[in-house]
C-alpha cells in the first residue's frame, strides 16, 4: 500500500510548518490511523493559543494578555511587573518550571495578606495549621491552667505543647519547659533518669591535702569537707 503524502518511514509531515518529524512529535489523535494528529506539537500549540484568543474576543470582547519576553534564566513576576532571575522566586514543584509565579517579596506579601484575610493574622494561621486549634481555644486552655506554665508555673506562657506521636495538645508551656521536653525527646524514661540523677548525684571538690582536691559524691560514702 503506498504511503500517504504526509507519512513515510515512521515520520509525518506537519501541515503547518511542512517539516518531517517523528510521530512522537505530534499530538495524539485517536481518529487518525497512526494515532497522531496532522500538526506537530509546536504548531498545534500555536493554533490552540490563536483559537483561544479568537473565542475570548468573540464571546467576552477581551484580548489575551501577552506576557513580556524575558531573558533565559529569568522569570516575570506579574505582581511587581519585573523580570528577575529564577533564584529570586520560591521553589514550587507543582509548576512545570519548578518555581512559583511570584517573586519572593511578592509571594511573601501575598502570603501575609491571605493569612490576614482568612485567619486574622499569622498567629491564628500557625495555631490552626499546626495544632488544629485557634487563639480562642488557646486562651481557654491557658485560663484552665490559671494563666501560668503547666510545668514550672511561670507567668504568661506562649508555647502550645503537643504529643508528637498523636498530635494531641497537652498544655501550654513557657519557652524553657517546652524546650526542655524537646531536648529530652518527650521520653518519660529520660526524664525519670534525670530526676534520679539530680537527687542522687552531688559531686563536690574536697580538699584532701594542701593544694590537692578530689571530686567526691555521696554515692562514694564521703562527705564534702568544709574547706572545699
UniProtKB/TrEMBL annotation:
TM region(s), chain numbering: none
Keyword Calcium tagged? no
Q: Does the keyword Transmembrane helix apply?
A: no
User: What is the residue range of the signal peptide feature?
Assistant: none
State the InterPro entries in the record.
Endonuclease_7, Endonuclease_7_sf, His-Me_finger_sf
**Per its UniProt entry, which superkingdom is the organism in?**
Bacteria
| SUPFAM superfamilies with a match to the protein in the record | His-Me finger endonucleases
Q: What is this protein called?
A: Recombination endonuclease VII
Q: Which organism is it from?
A: Micromonospora carbonacea
Q: What is the lineage of its organism?
A: Bacteria, Bacillati, Actinomycetota, Actinomycetes, Micromonosporales
